[in-house]
Amino acid sequence: MPLNVVDLSTTEDAMHARVWQLHIRPGKVQDFQNILSSLVDLAHRQVGYRGVLALASGNSESPDVTLVALWDSLEAIHATENNLFLTQAIARFLVCCEGLPQITEQELLASDLIATSARAKA
């Protein structure tokens, strides 16, 4: 059975991701999860927010975490800079993470997650 991947790179309004690299301080994983949960609640109020993945590697007590937050457009991502959502997120993560997060913006080229989500809603 062929993989049903949605190609998003050819659309005029391709989805984008804000990708965060963080390192959680020892013993702060639960704090991180609570902060992420509160930020997801706020993110759902932002125009264009689609969801987030949190991936951990390394020591389970002090993991390296990659967050991939999906947005409808680059404009939606930039709007969070103007309304202080991004600033609030960084400030909250400083409580449980070492140093400032590394944050990049990337275009989503293809996703099976989007195809799976669309099939589930049909």
Key structural traits:
6 strands; two-stranded antiparallel ribbon; 122 residues; Alpha-Beta Plaits; alpha+beta; 4 helices
Write the layout of secondary structure elements.
Elements: E1 6-7, E2 16-23, H1 29-43, E3 49-57, E4 64-71, H2 74-82, H3 85-93, E5 102-107, E6 110-111, H4 112-121
Antiparallel strand pairs: 1-6, 2-4, 2-5, 3-4
Helix pairs in contact: 1-3
How would you characterize this protein structure?
The chain contains 4 helices and 6 strands. The chain is of the alpha+beta class and 122 residues long. The chain has a single domain, classed as Alpha-Beta Plaits, CATH 3.30.70.100. A hairpin with a 6-residue loop joins strand 3 and strand 4. The two termini are 20 Å apart.
Strand order of the largest sheet: 3-4-2-5
Cα end-to-end separation? 20 Å
- As a percent range, the share of strand residues is 25-35%
Sketch the topology as an H/E string, one letter per element. Answer: EEHEEHHEEH
Question: What summary fits the major beta sheet?
Answer: 4 strands, antiparallel
Q: Helix- and strand-based class? A: alpha+beta
Low-confidence stretches: none
* Shape annotation: globular
Q: What is the name of the CATH topology? A: Alpha-Beta Plaits
**How much is the average pLDDT?**
87
Taking all Cα atoms into account, the compactness measure Rg is: 15 Å
